[in-house]
Amino acid sequence: MATTSDFRNGLCIEHNGEPWKIESFQHVKPGKGPAFVRTKIRNLNTGRLLENTFTAGVKIDIIRIENRKYQFLYSEGDDCHLMNTEDYEQIMLQKDFIDNFKFLKEGENVNVLFHADQGMPLSASLPSHVILQIKHTEPGIKGNTATNTFKPATTETEAEIQVPLFIEEGDKIKIDTEKGTYIERVK
User: What is the 3-state secondary structure (H, E, C) of the chain?
Assistant: First the structure.
């Protein structure tokens, strides 16, 4: 058992019978009344963000979390087959379970958070940046590269993204997976 004095960003706790991750917290000591901790916590099962207030000194249960690297093998319907890069164990997850699945191609690594005591996957996320090839986009018009305008493009994983006018079919680009935006062209 721990108390609110043990709070830190990224700490995983059990609250109302579900696993939550502390996104941010602030100790508040008002002039009147008891001290409390104002937090923003994210549900690891649903991804929902919640603002919650804990009375200072209240006991909480800390959850042990393990971060494991898995390699994406293939998808079959709504299921994704992943392989642990250390012991080659394979697991199957729903596509909805993986954040920004549309940017995931075969052979890419995925970080999977596991509840250490139950051995149950809690969430899965891609690396912060991926490199994908442009499968289809309209050709850019020469001389239109001075402005900061974008055009739609389709990547090799069928994801739709906005890219600058100078990007052509076959180019490789770096994409921010959290925001789903173009970063730069890769050679």
Answer: CEEHHHCCCCCEEEECCEEEEEEEEEEECCCCCCCEEEEEEEECCCCCEEEEEEECCCEEEECCEEEEEEEEEEEECCEEEEEECCCCCEEEEEHHHECCHHHCCCCCEEEEEEECCCCEEEEEECCCEEEEEEEEECCCCCCCCCCCCEEEEEECCCCEEEEECCCCCCCEEEEECCCCEEEEEEC
Domains, the chain, ordered by start: 2-62 (2.30.30.30), 65-125 (2.40.50.140), 129-186 (2.40.50.140)
pLDDT value of position 144: 59
CA-atom Rg of the chain in angstroms: 21
pLDDT in tens, 112-166: 888 888 888 888 888 889 999 999 998 876 665 556 788 899 999 889 999 988 8
Q: Above 90 in pLDDT, residue 96? A: no
pLDDT for the residue 124: 85
